[in-house]
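Why does residue order matter? Because the sequence determines the fold. Keep that principle in mind as you read this record.
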Amino acid sequence: QVSISIIEARQLVGLNMDPVVCVEVGEEKKYTSMKESTNCPYYNEYFVFDFHVPPDVMFDKIIKLSVIHSKNLLRSGTLVGSFKMDVGTVYTQPEHQFYHKWAILSDPEDLTAGLKGYLKCDIAVVGKGD
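Structure:
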């Protein structure tokens, strides 16, 4: 089980932002609510992803947090920046979690573009028997 809390974002790059956070674990996607006209949205939203696969398969899954600037959820928004890590990285942390950590958002297609903002989150991974 992977549980992720999206707490807030800061210093998002862009004007007239209506940011939404897309939380992906492997193939599954979930979205926060949209916050209007802010570069420092506060979400405090909690997501749980349940998987029934062997640990080695699970640890290779990628956790991806993306901030999307969206005026209208019906058409696709613009990617502000994203952050990725694998489930195994979280599992090797003390108590199998990152608590209140700031993820650095960058443009996956242009790493020289610099920071796109920060996303404060908690990520925890719980396996059978933990």
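The two ends are 11 Å apart (CA to CA).
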